[in-house]
Design goal:
Layout: H1 3-11, E1 23-29, H2 33-36, H3 40-51, E2 55-65, E3 71-73, E4 85-89, H4 95-105, E5 121-125, H5 128-131, E6 142-144, H6 152-160, H7 165-173, E7 178-179, H8 181-184, E8 216-219, E9 221-222, E10 243-244, H9 247-253, E11 260-264, H10 274-283, E12 287-290, H11 300-308, E13 313-319, H12 323-328, H13 335-348, E14 352-359, H14 366-380, E15 384-391, H15 408-422, E16 427-430, H16 433-445, H17 450-459, H18 463-476
Parallel strand pairs: 1-2, 1-4, 4-5, 5-6, 8-11, 11-12, 13-14, 14-15, 15-16
Antiparallel strand pairs: 2-3, 6-7, 9-10
């Protein structure tokens, strides 16, 4: 990628918080630019770095490289290995593989045990640290656990003094929410809940090249008060409480009102003032979308607002394949509620629904899958339906953490039976079993998997071979 390409990307952006400072940091997102620019966590960290008077923070992405494939930053085109500090935001287990590849291309030692004082300090954060921080322990010098709005500013004050690396690590290890693997060993600190006064996260700048185009994204709530047994965001898995952002805060941050707004959160429709928030943006002429809907929270007034806000597709989750499974995982959504919502949405002028389903739950049998197939058929009679079917990935800290991962033959059978049941009337989009298996293995193995990941990158082995190797390690553990 040449200098002209970088300048073109920057020319299409609006309201960047980037500034010049005496200390330079590269903020890496281990995925393409379009994905990183849709990550509110990544954008918030970029803003916090640049708000500090001593720091200049530049962005780097997996697809921003020089002619020799070496990673570059967007703002100045500087090679990644010329930065004294590299911060990386990790959202998903499989991004760790991409991260290893990027660091290798930058000619930086991947393992923190092999880096010396002249090598960049690597700091990791992001949603992945709430799930399996041990996976990052062999790779990062410092890891921020969970939410960073409270823990990052005091750390930046420390970092700005540029103490020797050993002193920096010792002092950072004493701070709340910071994990220093060489000091803490396996004793991972708790993730502190950020007070409401430091929320929300929002997309500080716009670009038409992002995942959602020029849409302005803003968090309307954080956490979840629900108890879904499979979810790392539920109150049963996370110590962080459910917090709702006051409407006036949302309105002030998005003033002047943008043409297109995305309301983001794990449980957006649980916000007690969601109607007022929608009404504000719709009446101002904005297109509005929501990252998540619960079928039991969508009334006629909300459907009308969503229709007026330009929504064409409702995105909802059934998750469990049957009423019995949904009750066992505390999902709290019935098939009748989904069918009723589909019918009301169609009458309101919203003609499409995207439904998320999972398969492979403990004690799941053929009758559950037949019930799922019948539900999809019933929904297809009311609305144009696309369903995403993914294997259950038992996540650490959730009530289902010890559940077995479903074998590939089981998921193939589920997909075959569903396709037969819907008779071509429903679009079925399966999530890769291989990727889900890799996610599961990395969650279970944590840092034990890192050497295998490095070998995979070095030897350019197939993803299937990597999955087989990691699953073999699990069987022998």
């Amino acid at each position: 990628m040449g200098e002209a390409d970088l300048k073109r990307i920057i020319s299409l952006e609006k309201n960047s918080p980037f500034k010049r400072g005496r200390h330079h940091v590269a903020l890496l997102y281990a995925a393409p630019y379009r994905a990183g620019m849709a990550s509110l966590g990544y954008l918030s960290v970029h803003r916090l770095f640049n708000e500090h008077p001593d720091f200049s923070c530049e962005r780097a992405f997996s697809d921003l490289t020089g002619t020799d494939a070496s990673p570059l930053t967007l703002e100045t085109g500087r090679p990644l290995n010329r930065f004294p500090v590299i911060a990386v935001s990790m959202a998903w287990e499989l991004e760790v593989i991409e991260f290893i590849g990027i660091i290798k291309k930058a000619q930086i030692p991947v393992l923190q045990s092999e880096r010396c004082h002249d090598d960049p300090l690597i700091i990791a954060g992001g949603p992945l640290t709430q799930v399996v921080p041990s996976l990052l322990a062999p790779l990062a010098d410092i890891i921020f656990i969970g939410e960073t709005e409270a823990s990052l500013p005091p750390f930046l004050d420390l970092l700005a003094t540029m103490p020797p690396r050993d002193e920096l690590l010792q002092r950072a290890a004493a701070m709340d929410g910071i994990y220093v693997p060489t000091i803490h060993s396996g004793a991972i600190p708790a993730s502190p809940a950020v007070p409401l006064s430091l929320l929300p996260a929002w997309s500080t700048f716009e670009t038409p090249l992002g995942e959602f185009g020029a849409k302005s994204l803003i968090e309307v709530e954080r956490g979840c008060a629900r108890a879904c047994a499979f979810c790392v965001m539920s109150r049963k898995a996370s110590a962080c409480t459910f917090r709702v952002v006051p409407p006036e805060t949302i309105f002030s941050l998005l003033d002047p009102t943008p043409a297109s707004v995305g309301l983001v959160g794990a449980a957006v429709t649980d916000h007690p003032q969601i109607h007022a928030i929608l009404e504000h943006f719709v009446n101002a002429g904005s297109e509005v979308s929501l990252s998540s809907l619960r079928a039991d929270r969508v009334d006629e007034a909300m459907l009308d607002l969503l229709k007026r806000g330009g929504m064409k597709t409702l995105t909802v989750a059934a998750d469990g394949p049957s009423e019995r499974i949904r009750q066992s995982i505390s999902k709290g959504i019935s098939g009748d509620q989904l069918i009723d919502l589909a019918q009301r949405a169609r009458l309101a002028g919203i003609g499409k629904m995207k439904l998320y389903q999972m398969a492979g739950f403990p004690r799941e049998d053929d009758s559950d899958i037949r019930e799922m197939g019948q539900l999809l058929m019933d929904l297809s009679e009311k609305i144009s339906l696309t369903v995403t079917v993914s294997p259950l990935v038992p996540k650490p800290s959730t009530p289902l953490a010890s559940a077995p991962f479903p074998p590939e033959r089981q998921i193939k059978s589920v997909l075959k039976n569903l396709k037969r049941a819907v008779k071509g009337r429903v679009i079925i989009r399966p999530v890769s079993w291989r990727d889900a298996a890799l996610e599961y293995a990395l969650d279970q193995l944590g840092g034990e998997a890192v050497d295998e990941l490095i070998d995979h990158v070095d030897n350019q082995s197939s993803r299937g071979a990597l999955v087989a190797s990691l699953m073999g390690m699990l069987r022998h553990n």
